[in-house]
Amino acid sequence: MGRPDPSANSGGVNSVNLIGRLVNDPAVRAAATGERECAMRVAIPRVGPAGRPEPGVVYVDVVAGGVRARDLAEELRGGMRVGVSGRLELDEWVEPGGERRARYEVMADQLEVLDPPPGAARAAKR
């Protein structure tokens, strides 16, 4: 009897939950499948082991696909605080010069606007 395929029912969990601010306005792009995607970068403040804030920020690339991609790109703006739930995926490609590249992205299943960008409330009062 051979060894089981380690990727088959590994018992692992691929679940990511993030809260942070959008670095820039999101962009709509075409996925390899031809489907539209809404790509964005989320800045997440660092937190230490005791739960206290630490200097620095973690930047995470987030992609939302499907029918909401265009709506999200129109609704979201840089600086907005968002909550994201999804899964981690590895994106690999080869540059025209032959260099292999890779990056991790969070594929969003849910994305919620938690509050407007900083300064939006002041602008609305004027």
Write up this protein.
The chain contains 2 helices and 6 strands; from the N terminus they run ββββαββα. The protein is about 10% helix and about 50% strand. β5 and β6 (about 100-115) form a beta hairpin. The chain has a 5-stranded mixed β-barrel with strand order 1-3-4-6-5. Mean pLDDT is about 85; it is low at about 120-125. It has helices at about 70-75, 120-125; strands at about 15-20, 25-30, 35-45, 55-65, 80-95, 100-115. The chain starts with 15 loop residues before the first strand and ends with a helix. The protein has about 130 residues and is mainly beta. It has a single domain, classed as Nucleic acid-binding proteins (OB fold (Dihydrolipoamide Acetyltransferase, E2P)), CATH 2.40.50.140.
Key traits:
126 residues; mainly beta; globular; OB fold (Dihydrolipoamide Acetyltransferase, E2P)
Write the SSE topology.
Blueprint: E1 16-22, E2 27-30, E3 36-47, E4 53-65, H1 69-75, E5 81-94, E6 100-115, H2 120-125
Parallel strand pairs: 4-6
Antiparallel strand pairs: 1-3, 1-5, 2-3, 3-4, 5-6
